[in-house]
Design a protein that fits this description.
Radius of gyration: 12 Å
Structural class: alpha/beta
Strand order of the largest sheet: 1-2-3-4-5
Number of helices: 2
Strand content: 25-35%
Largest sheet: 5 strands, mixed
Shape: globular
Helix content: 25-40%
């Protein structure tokens, strides 16, 4: 399936696409700085509202190590998923410095 949502910033690229029945995958490439964190969080909120998935997999294997803004962004995304009865799975990188 082709990516549905692509947001780009100088150092961040986000793709959101179907990942099986009731599932979405959000693939992040680059650095999740303060501006990128806002864009990533917005992409997750839009996906939750539009698709009402049962699970979102956040693939960070191509993202830089997370700074505090990136860690907070993932916490917000997970909390938003919880409010929508949507599972949240994170793949890479380790969020502990």
């Amino acid at each position: 399936m082709h990516p549905e949502t692509t947001l780009a910033a100088d150092q961040l690229h986000v793709d959101t696409f179907g990942d099986g029945p009731g599932a979405l995958r959000v693939t992040v490439t680059g650095t999740i700085d303060r501006a990128g964190a806002r864009r990533l969080h917005k992409a997750v909120i839009n996906a939750l509202r539009r698709h009402r998935p049962e699970r979102i997999t956040m693939d960070l294997t191509r993202a830089s190590p997370l700074d505090p803004a990136g860690e907070r962004c993932l916490q917000l995304c997970q909390a938003d998923c919880l409010q929508m009865d949507c599972g949240f799975v994170q793949i890479g990188p380790d969020t502990h410095r």
